[in-house]
Amino acid sequence: MNEEVRDITIIGAGPVGLTTAFWAGMREANSQIIDSLPDLGGQLTTLYPEKWIFDVPGYPRVLAKDLIDQLRQQSIEQFDVPVSLETTADRVEYEGEGSERVLRLVTDKGDFLSRTIVIAGGHGAFEPKKLPGFDMDPWEGKGAHYLVGEKSAFAGKKVVIVGGGDSACDWCLNLLDTAAEITLVHRREGFRAHEVTVKELNDAADAGQVAIRTPHQIREVHGNGRVEGITVFHSETEEEEHIECDAILLQLGFKTALGPLKEWPLEVEKGAIKVDPVMHTSMEGVWAAGDITTFDGKLKLIATGFAEAAIAVAQAVHHIRPESRIQPKYSTNTGVPGSVEGQA
Ligand SMILES: Cc1cc2nc3c(=O)[nH]c(=O)nc-3n(C[C@H](O)[C@H](O)[C@H](O)COP(=O)(O)OP(=O)(O)OC[C@H]3O[C@@H](n4cnc5c(N)ncnc54)[C@H](O)[C@@H]3O)c2cc1C
């Protein structure tokens, strides 16, 4: 077990967690990040990697996945921050007293020791919703996907997208320039997506670019080791149809839950952690930033999460080194600390 004590353990590798690691590096504090997902980027990677974001100041527009890549370079790459993915925070134990106090973050992959913790857990740990009524598990990794990491994974493929919400409809439109064929299967008539998206989808269907099968459900998946086709049935008439395909993209939404964090002695309001004006939670040595926080005037935006992370880190560093000033020096004067002591 790694018994090294770092300055800050960051829970969450979304945009705000990555930014927290950046601010830590700028304050010459060493940090480490854990996240329950297999990839960096939180909601941006999981829910909308190929969407343009227009309200991150400094970028007239930026693709979500590109913003995460820039944040990755600026934070974990620049400051060599260790990241443990597929690792879920379970509980915190306090050890020692006063300036010797250490927080032991217990996870499903072992313990992480640090002087402080910043929770940047967004809406909590993510899990894609499974298809009701059909077990897709045996086809995962063999053509069935819950996430679109790179659009190129669907290049030239006959793709069946399953779902009726924004993400299913968005991916139909987003993959038009990538996939060879797209069929959208939804068990109900009509879609629960933005009006503009539904109009664009219907236009694409009228132009023969997308085949829509509603109300239809999956009855069977065919293939010899990989997806080669599916049988769908009409939800009312039960009439069956075979659709040739080599990829199935399930877009049924995500379950998010505070999960184990709910058991922590944190003050929680409507699923979010209450913080004071300096982003401190009700637990000693634990700050929070980003979508997971709530306070008067809270905005759930990437831009405000960046600022919350700066405040949380300034406080955490001051807590560890009381002689340090809370206000950071301007980077125009200091540049970026060359190497951070103790960083891996
Ligand atoms: C479709 C969509 C479009 C959006 N568009 C915009 C936009 O245009 N502009 C904008 O500003 N915002 C937008 N947002 C909101 C933006 O994505 C969020 O504000 C942002 O992702 C918050 O970042 P975060 O790092 O706080 O949380 P998240 O991105 O949610 O990341 C939190 C991370 O913490 C991890 N985590 C949680 N609990 C644990 C645990 N116990 N252990 C380990 N890891 C854990 C999660 O797995 C996750 O990776 C959009 C959101 C959606 C869904």
Your description of this structure?
The structure is a single chain. With 344 residues, this protein is α/β, with parallel strands linked by helices. The protein has 2 domains: 5-126 and 255-334, 3-Layer(bba) Sandwich (FAD/NAD(P)-binding domain); 130-252, FAD/NAD(P)-binding domain. 22% of the residues lie in helices and 28% in strands. It has helices at 15-26, 42-46, 64-77, 166-174, 195-206, 302-320, 331-334, and strands spanning 5-11, 31-34, 52-53, 62-63, 83-84, 89-95, 102-107, 110-119, 125-128, 144-145, 158-162, 181-185, 210-213, 216-222, 229-234, 240-244, 247-250, 254-257, 268-269, 272-274, 286-288, 293-294. The strands form 6 sheets. Strands 1, 2, 5, 6, 7, 8 and 21 form a 7-stranded mixed beta sheet that branches. Strand 19 and strand 20 form a beta hairpin. Helix 1 runs parallel beside helix 6 (302-320) and helix 4 (166-174) crosses helix 5. The longest helix has 19 residues, at 302-320. The protein is elongated and about 70 Å long. It starts with a strand and ends in a 10-residue tail after the last helix. The relative contact order is 0.18. The model has no long low-confidence stretch (mean pLDDT 93). Bound molecules: flavin-adenine dinucleotide (FAD). Flavin-adenine dinucleotide (FAD) binds at residues 11-17, 34-37, 42-44, 47-48, 53, 55, 88-89, 120-126, 259-261, 290-292, 300-303, 305.
CATH fold type of the largest domain: FAD/NAD(P)-binding domain
- The N- to C-terminal Cα distance equals 16 Å
Shape: elongated
Derived structural class? alpha/beta
Q: Helical element count? A: 7
Number of strands: 22
CATH architecture of the largest domain: 3-Layer(bba) Sandwich
Biggest sheet details:
7 strands, mixed
Bound molecules: flavin-adenine dinucleotide
In round numbers, the mean pLDDT is 93
Number of domains: 2
**Which residue ranges are poorly predicted, with pLDDT under 50 across at least 5 consecutive positions?**
none
User: Percent of residues in beta strands?
Assistant: 25-35%
What would you give as the CATH superfamily of the largest domain?
Answer: FAD/NAD(P)-binding domain
Query: Radius of gyration from the CA trace?
Result: 23 Å
Sketch the topology as an H/E string, one letter per element: EHEHEEHEEEEEEEHEHEEEEEEEEEEHH
- So what's the CATH class of the largest domain? Alpha Beta
Percent of residues in helices: 10-25%
